[in-house]
Description:
Lipocalin; mainly beta; eight-stranded antiparallel beta barrel; 12 strands; about 210 residues; two-stranded antiparallel sheet; 2 domains
Amino acid sequence: xxxxxxxxxxxxxxxxxxxxxxxxxxxxxxxxxxxxxxxxxxxxxxxxxxxxxxxxxxxxxxxxxxxxxxxxxxxxxxxxxxxxxxxxxxxxxxxxxxxxxxxxxxxxxxxxxxxxxxxxxxxxxxxxxxxxxxxxxxxxxxxxxxxxxxxxxxxxxxxxxxxxxxxxxxxxxxxxxxxxxxxxxxxxxxxxxxxxxxxxxxxxxxxx
Length: 208
């Protein structure tokens, strides 16, 4: 038997609301009337088909179009603003500085952000022109809705701007106080061996 072919014409008697395909669809008394549903749940239009194969093709087209529209909406629906809670947990921090006065400074630290605007430097090692210093400290931070923010000294004075990755996996820091230090650093979140438990550390002036 020859395969069924839709009877196409220049004038569209019935146009599918999603695919835009046209054809002459002859209704049958016993034919099912599938409903095409929009992503919002509303019914777009009832259609009847002349042939089961034709109905199957149109269903697949409709499903693909609806799914592509829905997938496009999901990321926006799940997007959230940044806040102090974006930085939460333990981060490995590395920074380098080239002071305008000369010399060089390297720093490694393990920092724990508490998600409430405070952080604890669990232990830093700084090498300034061959002179090594270690220690711990507690300081402050603030993250805005656009994921920008600042790191603050314990007295509330600004250390410099920080940008947090929206998923909290990393942050980027530029020291601007003092501006002559010329320090930039990156913190990357680490999870192994760092559960949610209380830690204590001595306070002092910031050594980021």
